[in-house]
Amino acid sequence: xxxxxxxxxxxxxxxxxxxxxxxxxxxxxxxxxxxxxxxxxxxxxxxxxxxxxxxxxxxxxxxxxxxxxxxxxxxxxxxxxxxxxxxxxxxxxxxxxxxxxxxxxxxxxxxxxxxxxxxxxxxxxxxxxxxxxxxxxxxxxxxxxxxxxxxxxxxxxxxxxxxxxxxxxxxxxxxxxxxxxxxxxxxxxxxxxxxxxxxxxxxxxxxxxxxxxxxxxxxxxxxxxxxxxxxxxxxxxxxxxxxxxxxxxxxxxxxxxxxxxxxxxxxxxxxxxxxxxxxxxxxxxxxxxxxxxxxxxxxxxxxxxxxxxxxxxxxxxx
Length: 318
Ligand code: DAH
Fold this sequence. Notes:
Elements: H1 2-18, H2 26-56, H3 78-81, H4 87-101, E1 105-106, H5 115-118, H6 153-159, H7 162-165, E2 170-179, E3 191-201, H8 206-221, E4 227-231, E5 237-246, E6 258-267, H9 269-274, E7 283-290, H10 291-299, H11 306-309, H12 312-315
Parallel strand pairs: 1-2
Antiparallel strand pairs: 2-3, 3-7, 4-5, 5-6, 6-7
Bound molecules: 3,4-dihydroxyphenylalanine.
């Protein structure tokens, strides 16, 4: 703390010095100003360091409702210490808002799940190689930090099953945090966000799904988009598709530059059955894709690792 006081005194001196600029011959002012400014920047940087250190000390003594320390004057650089909403959180709000306007309910996913919701309820055959890509981490008790938000499908179906009896559709989206055993690089993170969608009614079709997805992406990117699908494989959908959008010109895309945005398909009859829904009578479609990727394209971000980095320079850009 003494160092901090000393630095602040020094800053005051520099500020006072700067006030004297009028007394200096005009031709020397630029140089004078440059020198003082450089000193000032150095001191400010050190003040930030010191203030951070001060915050590190004794957590139990920190009143989280107070501006800085308890009964201490506000720091010189209060704005640099003040937090702000993480860009992923505000984008998740935007994603949820678009789906809400289309009539979807929004649920939250679990960050610790179990074998049943991760695999069995999603029609993963026992010992099947399709499990490998999703078999990530486990706690000693056998809980699973989920590798995708599809773990929520069974819960969403059960929770809104009554809608069907009332002649209404089930329409739910579920944003959530997921975990994978990835080699991390600019486009792969071990921790990221996905958004799952589930829709069930008596008469829905794959065409309805493509309409909903197109609508979502066009709202999110605020422009018309070209879309494309190609066959995929997921145990919980049949048929399964990969959904792509053409990278918009305004976002640096060239014609034919298609980006895979999510996996989707018609919900497998076994998945409906396991949630107590009669697959002879009802049909559904589901989709799930990364939110980080969505946001990266929107803002032209090149490295997914920024999101989890806690890098303040990155966060302050939003
Ligand atoms: N859960 C899949 C993944 O993360 C994506 C996915 C594919 C979700 C098809 C779905 C779906 O709901 O129907 O790789």
